[in-house]
Amino acid sequence: MVDQTQPPAGAQSSGTVAIVEDDPGIRDLVRVLLSREGFQVMAFEGSAGLEADGIVERLDCLILDLMLPGEDGLEICQRLRARFPKLPILIVTAKDDPIDRIVGLELGADDYLAKPFNKRELLARLRSILRRTKDIATAIEAETGDNFRFNGWLLNLGARDLANPAGESVTLTTSEFDLLHVLVLHPKRVLSRELLIDWTRGKSASPFDRVIDVQIGRLRRKLGDDPREPAIIRTVRGDGYLFASTVTRC
Three-class SS of residue 235? Predict the structure, then answer.
């Protein structure tokens, strides 16, 4: 069963968000908070019902708890990420162990917020994810047909597609696409972690979080870049990352 809440009458919708949270108090708190901010909200206590026909496709973001009865949030995140690579996912959980954060990000979550959380921080994280998603769509619309080539790879902004040297499509999450787009726009230039966080995740993010490092690792694997001696995305110790490949626009 799903609890649905609409924005106040006459208010412009801020987007459609689903919450998967087994604690009814937290679930209702977040549902009411987001509805007051203009979101259409669907709330679930588990994964049952979430994947009914057409629900996930309608979402602008999924807010997902990790500690759920039965199938846990990490399993849900992994399965949904495989089926819906463009779906933004914000993990909100009491499991604040750094390992859990990294595992969640490795499985494709876009951001991670620990309980107990401040309402304003939750809204800031959610809006940052939605803004990045919108910015990507706007950039793609403005640059339709604009392609970037590097090391035999082709990044097509119009189709939002990454093709390997064999011409095969490689799936990127929203956050991975966002990060790769920034890197190919600034090749041969050292970009600090703080700058990458600001450009891809907004000022609400902590400069000490590991999201960028994890996503760089995921991009390297998808690009076949040896993490021990990366040739495409190099680590500049103490300074940040450098996209070392020559990039041409076509």
Answer: strand
Within 10 A of 116 (CB to CB), how many other CB atoms are there? 6
Q: Which of 221, 139, 210, 123 is nearest to 174 (CA)?
A: 139
What are the tens digits of pLDDT across the range 160-198?
A: 789 999 999 998 887 888 889 989 989 999 998 888 877
* Structure token digits, residue 146: 């604009």
Nearest-angstrom CA–CA distance, 136 and 93: 27
Give residues with Cβ within 8 angstroms of 71, minimum separation 6.
Answer: 46, 47
Would you list the DSSP string of 138-168? Answer: HHHHHTTT-EEEETTEEEETTTTEEE-TTS-
Q: Which residues pair with 91 in a beta bridge?
A: 64, 112
Read off the pLDDT of residues 32-78 as tens digits, 9 standing for 90 and up.
Answer: 999 999 999 999 988 887 877 678 888 999 999 988 888 888 888 88
